[in-house]
């Protein structure tokens, strides 16, 4: 069994993109999400083709009986379904429901990553200055390597997103890249 930092596999984590955009700040977030959907869809496709686990970590939006199927169906029946359809989970995708900002807070994410022998998480999705930032910190303190493709994350406040990416890079040693720079074939 490997210790911290010795695991080699990568996982692509898609944060909070299964979304109805029927919440506070949605009018600011939806246009940013629209800008990243095509990039994220390509990234998800490349990860799937390379056999890299794709894990959706999604807020339950306070619906405590919600599950993957209900969240996806709700998002696909919303006026913003076009932001979800290109990146929807397939049958091989993994799904973790979360209730707070971090993908790790009171979720099985740590165990899932350990079980999959993951040492590097590629964090994508929304919101850069909130859930992506807090998840990067929690990944860092768990001795996971963190990569964030800056063109595959969406923000509410662009100036805070710039600061968040800089904090991830400086304080957590995260690798901040463009999605096209990721080569999943090297992740095993």
What does it look like?
- The protein is built from five helices and seven strands; from the N terminus they run βαβαβαβαββαβ.
- It is an alpha/beta fold.
- The chain has helices spanning 26-49, 68-76, 109-115, 128-141, 158-172; strands spanning 9-15, 54-59, 94-98, 118-126, 145-149, 153-154, 175-177.
- It is globular, with a radius of gyration of 15 Å.
Summarize the structure in short:
37% of the residues lie in helices and 20% in strands. The chain has helices at residues 26-49, 68-76, 109-115, 128-141, 158-172, and strands spanning 9-15, 54-59, 94-98, 118-126, 145-149, 153-154, 175-177. Strand 1 (9-15), helix 1 and strand 2 (54-59) form a beta-alpha-beta unit.
DSSP, total strands: 7
Large-scale geometry: globular
Order of helices and strands: EHEHEHEHEEHE
Tell me roughly what share of residues is in helical segments.
Answer: 25-40%
- Which structural class fits the helix and strand makeup? alpha/beta
Q: Could you give the distance between the termini?
A: 16 Å
Relative strand content: 15-25%
The profile of the biggest β sheet is: 7 strands, parallel
SS summary, helix count: 5
**Spatial extent as radius of gyration:** 15 Å
**Residue ranges: pLDDT <50 for 5 or more in a row?**
1-5
Q: Can you give the mean pLDDT?
A: 92
Characteristics:
5 helices, 188 residues, 37% helix, disordered N terminus, single chain, 7-stranded parallel sheet, alpha/beta
């Amino acid at each position: 069994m490997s210790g911290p930092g010795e695991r080699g596999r990568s996982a692509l984590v898609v944060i909070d993109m299964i979304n109805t955009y029927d919440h506070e700040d949605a009018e600011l977030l939806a246009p940013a999400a629209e800008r990243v959907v095509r990039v994220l869809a390509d990234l998800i496709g490349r990860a799937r083709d390379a056999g890299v686990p794709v894990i959706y970590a999604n807020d339950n939006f306070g619906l405590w009986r919600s599950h993957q199927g209900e969240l996806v169906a709700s998002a696909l029946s919303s006026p913003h379904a076009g932001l979800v359809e290109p990146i929807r989970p397939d049958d091989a995708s993994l799904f973790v429901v979360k209730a707070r900002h971090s993908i790790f807070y009171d979720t099985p994410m740590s165990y899932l990553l350990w079980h999959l022998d993951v040492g590097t998480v590629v964090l994508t999705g929304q919101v850069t200055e909130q859930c992506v930032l807090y998840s990067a910190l929690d990944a860092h303190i768990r001795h996971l390597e963190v990569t964030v493709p800056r063109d595959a994350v969406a923000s509410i406040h662009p100036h805070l997103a710039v600061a968040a990416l800089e904090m991830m890079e400086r304080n957590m040693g995260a690798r901040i890249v463009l999605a096209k720079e990721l080569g999943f074939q090297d992740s095993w």
